[in-house]
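Section 3.1: Structural characterization of target chains.
Under the original work plan, the team committed to producing a structural model for every single-chain target entering the pipeline before any wet-lab resources were allocated. The record below documents one such target. The sequence was received from the expression subgroup and is listed exactly as submitted; it comprises 112 residues.
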Amino acid sequence: MYNFFCRNLKNYMSSCGGEQDYRSQISQVFEGLLDQSTYQKWKAENHPFYKELNNLVYRIQKEGEISPLFETLGRDLWACDYLAAEDPAFNTETIEEQLKIINLCLRGQYLE
C-alpha cells in the first residue's frame, strides 16, 4: 500500500507544479512521506515538519479505525519507522485537507 500511495502522491505533487496555493502549501509536509531520508533529516533537526508529519501519521492511524485503506497505510508507515504522535497545536482544518489529499492518493486518483 505504501508504494502505491507514494506513486500517487508523487503524481499529485508534480501536478501542483510548485504553485503557492493553499493545497500546495499544506502538501509540503508530504515530502517526508515520499522520502524516508528527508523524514530522518527532519527528525535530527527537530524540524517543524517532523512534528507535523508525526501528527499526521497519528491521524492516519486514527482514520484507520473507519477506513481499511488508512488502516493499511498506517501499518505500513509504522513498519517504515514513522512515529505517530498527536499534537493538538496543529490546525484541524489543515489536517482534514491533508487527509483528503491522502485519501485521493490511496484511491488511485493520481495514477498515470
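The radius of gyration is 13 Å.
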